[in-house]
Amino acid sequence: MLRITTQNGYVEWDKIDIDSIDLPPSEDNYGIPSDDEDLTQKDGANKDGSKDESSMMSTAIIVDNLPEVPEAKFVKLTNVLTKIFGQIGQIRDGGLHMPMDPATKMSCGYAFIEFSSRAEADAAVEQTDGYKLDKAHVFKVSKFDDFEKYAKIPDEYVAPEPKPYTQRENTQAWMMDERGRDQFVCRFGDETEIFWNDAQKSTAVEEYKRSFWTESYVQWSPRGTYLATVHRQGVALWGGSSFGRLAKFSHSGVQFIEFSPCERYLCSGSAHEPSRGNPASVVVNFFDIATGQKLRQFSGAQKDFLASANQRGFVWPIFKWNGLESEDVYTSSSSKNDIKTEENEKEMPAFFARLAKDAVQVYQAPEMTLLDKKSVKLPGVSEFCWSPGEPILATFQPEQNSGNVPARISLMQLPSRNEVRSKNLFNVSDVKMYWQSQGDYFAVKVDHHTKSKKSTYSGFELFRLREPMCPMEVLALPDKAEKIVAFAWEPKGHRFAIIHGDGARPDVSFYSMIEAEGGAKKVHLLKTLKSKTANHLFWSPNGSMIVFAGLKTMNGQFEFFNVDEMETMATCEHFMATDVEWDPTGRFVTTAVTGVHQMENGYHIWTFNGRLLYKQTRERFFQFLWRPRGKSLLSKAQEADIKKNLKKYSKKFEEEDEKIKNQQATMLDKAKQETKEKWEAWVEEKKRKIESDEYQGTLKKILGAEYEKQGAEIVTIEEEEEEIISVVEEPL
Amino acid sequence: MRPILLKGHERPLTFIKYNADGDLIVTCAKDHHPTLWYADTGNRVGTYIGHNGAVWTADITRDSKTLATGSADTSCKLWDVGSGVCFQTFQFDQPVRAVSFAIGDEKMLITTDPFMGVNAAIHIVEITKNREEQTSKILKTISGDGIVNGRLNRVAWGALNETFLTAGEDGVLRVWDVETGKVLHEARDAHKGKPIQHLELSADKTHAITASLDKTAKIFDAQNLELLKTYVADRPVNAAIISPIREHIILGGGQDAMAVTTTSSKAGKFDSKIYHKIFEEEIGGIRGHFGPINALAFCPDGKSFTSGGEDGYARIHHLDNTYFDIK
């Protein structure tokens, strides 16, 4: 127990080691009952009671699942173990003991290891439990202290009482909206609210609202099934038609979250300020969303999570997920090709990667282990990103050895680690990497500096991933010195847009990767639009349409542009807009002013061609997020069929829209009529009172002579007065 | 028609009042000198010199002969409109915030601010027909102690001079009995506790409009304070007026004067907005000021209105035919 000495009646806080205080199991669960309460209590009991007795053996661990080897190989295995565990901590002299079975003259398949400190033993358990020596031998490492606990487990397996099955709400319910509307979430003040975007009625229809739902922000999962809220204790996921809580993941002080692209895993991260004796640290947890199980934790000093020494802050995401086409197959499987899916699933696990010193570390889920137990060595690597399609890793290594080793861009296929294509570059000051949404094309914007290092010029390296051998091209703008303001690929397409130029009115250019005539695979300029007030590009998620936005210094100017026809559909303004977002279907665009500005917080919703549908103002507006849609269940053939018969289908829907619009109009008219009648009735009642003799009599008394004038028309009387000022007779 | 710009004040406008015939406008500003203008042309008639502080309020008798003004110099003055001579002064110990002549012009209400530990108060004085007999005697003082918190920004007589209405900083709208000095009705959460900047009654005294910093203007039944209409704006509202001839209201205001310099005039929302009185829908707006609008007044004929801003200008807007074409 900690003794707090008081002098002069106050506590001397500086003499207290805060970390030594054992807090009682937390009651502070903010009304959310904790699933792991039993666990905490057990831990507490351990700490109080058996802690001292077992501390003798707290430096020892047991390693199970070792290969059973004959005497001849005994020394070799011992050496292997010494090497593995020696890296983690100092093994005491004679601290490694691997018993032999005297009968068979074989090792028993387990070993005891004693470290010099308890911390090392803890670290060894954490790091090597689940270590794959080879396929058949995955280490099972536990603390010696825990052995007793495991020994107590009865030999007879008693199946736990199965929990009664409770029907979960349909988490895809919002996708079944009869009119195909989309949802979005808004966060303003202390409120978080989910709306339907009702375009026919030109309004947002409230679906769900909750105050203090989140403590920092909200985020949809990539396919819209879950809404994540972030709290001090961890992350909660909500969904279904009633937006009930579906899962929660405890992670104290969590700041960042990241879903795996197909919603199977959740990664949460937190950075902690340096506190008494501990340097700044980072904790990253991986959870399985369906089971709520914590799969792996990465933690350590903050400097271990920085890619390079000169990186200042800590950048999220630390881990990047690959595109996971494989998981697409996994989730959208229909009963017919189940077998095939399973095969695919096995072939292509999910990957996530992080940048390390001179390497990229690629992990695979659900094992959560380093792929092939070794990281991808890339000296000096400073940037990487995954293709949104198949697992291809794009990496950039800047120039090294003061320019003697060239900078290098490389595309690597995983898990095979075959290099798809690479390119060496010179005089590079900076690069930016852009993948096309399906991973068909890859562009790198390269800023070269001149020999004198006084000025820079930009160019693009373009890769075609779908062609054999992955051919590449270099694209330079006509004026090399021009600044590149923005670059964006057309989603699901082969075109891209660039904003380039200096000053307040830059130019916008469109390029295609395929020539219109003949279809040659060669990049060429489609069109350049001169002097546009724009600094951001927002393509429709289905391509063809694009919004040029002049945000920040350009005060919120927008241009809706049709790239197929090369024509401007509309230009408009949303003063001081900070955010632009397309809905998942590409039918609507939102522009929003969020809390960074004081005035005019709120959002506007536009059609894809720039017609304002409606606007909402909200004080302290923080977030606007469209709910992403799940993957389409239609096959390619079905989609093609719909496209072919689009006219037939659209007619039906247009009729419905018209009907709703008319209904809405009549309803509004009726409501207006009612308000009018109500007001007129009120006025009539008042009028009767005023016109009563009693009232008029009193008024007459008050006003006196003025009473008669009241109500009489103001008559303008023009009076002409002639005044003779002087008469002068003029001599004739 | 282009608005007529009245450039006569050196400081922000505080109050605007038309006379009953609608041919004269009195403007008050923080620069001590209320000014009289022709409503038609915007020509200046003259100024009333005598106050020693910001002038917060003014009222004109029905015959357009007497002007009453209230100032932060703790006095309320009566002036001869034509000659500009001050013929009587009511001296208080607190700044004067609002004045209002009764129907028939035989009485006047004056409100004074809370100051040096003294709470806001409402004073009733007598106005004599014969100016020689006019005294500075106060008939009755109703203290706001325990009832009113903060300033009483506006005061207005109710129907038949039986009641009067007040609104102020505490965001509460009240109906008082003139005889007893008791509160008859109270709308506590009229504006969520945010200050009410303006209060004005319709021509027939049946309903009252309030303008508040909670970004709304509201219409209440002037007798029982039943909430009838709410007009939601996107800026703090400093003034709201009712058209005497059409089912419209006009409101004005803008971003807090403290924050004005930090954004452009477009972001400040310094335009006057016209709303449909019954449907509560915005119809249109008139731009021009480059500071928040502090005061609005409708001409009694309903064909023009004047706005006064923090920018020191008053603007007379003669409404075009296009306005009268609005259904």
From TrEMBL, chain A:
Residues 639-666 form a coiled coil. GO terms for molecular function: RNA binding; translation initiation factor activity; translation initiation factor binding. One of its GO terms (biological process) is formation of cytoplasmic translation initiation complex. The keyword Protein biosynthesis applies. It is found in: Cytoplasm. Residues 39-54 have a biased composition (Basic and acidic residues). Keywords: Coiled coil, Cytoplasm, Initiation factor, Protein biosynthesis, RNA-binding. Residues 59-146 form the RRM domain. InterPro entries: 6-blade_b-propeller_TolB-like (IPR011042), EIF3B (IPR011400), eIF3B_RRM (IPR034363), Nucleotide-bd_a/b_plait_sf (IPR012677), RBD_domain_sf (IPR035979), RRM_dom (IPR000504), TIF_beta_prop-like (IPR013979), WD40/YVTN_repeat-like_dom_sf (IPR015943). Component of the eukaryotic translation initiation factor 3 (eIF-3) complex. This is Eukaryotic translation initiation factor 3 subunit B. It comes from Bathycoccus prasinos.
From TrEMBL, chain B:
It is found in: Cytoplasm. Keywords: Cytoplasm, Initiation factor, Protein biosynthesis, Repeat, WD repeat. SUPFAM superfamilies: WD40 repeat-like (SSF50978). WD repeats lie at residues 6-47, 48-89, 155-186, 286-316. It comes from Bathycoccus prasinos. Its main location: cytoplasm. Component of the eukaryotic translation initiation factor 3 (eIF-3) complex, which is involved in protein synthesis of a specialized repertoire of mRNAs and, together with other initiation factors, stimulates binding of mRNA and methionyl-tRNAi to the 40S ribosome. The eIF-3 complex specifically targets and initiates translation of a subset of mRNAs involved in cell proliferation. It comes from the Eukaryota. This is Eukaryotic translation initiation factor 3 subunit I. One of its GO terms (molecular function) is translation initiation factor activity. Belongs to the WD repeat STRAP family. Belongs to the eIF-3 subunit I family. Component of the eukaryotic translation initiation factor 3 (eIF-3) complex. It holds the Pfam family EIF3I. GO terms for cellular component: eukaryotic 43S preinitiation complex; eukaryotic 48S preinitiation complex; eukaryotic translation initiation factor 3 complex, eIF3m. InterPro entries: eIF3i, WD40/YVTN_repeat-like_dom_sf, WD40_PAC1, WD40_repeat_CS, WD40_repeat_dom_sf, WD40_rpt. One of its GO terms (biological process) is formation of cytoplasmic translation initiation complex. HAMAP family: eIF3i. Gene3D superfamilies: YVTN repeat-like/Quinoprotein amine dehydrogenase (2.130.10.10).
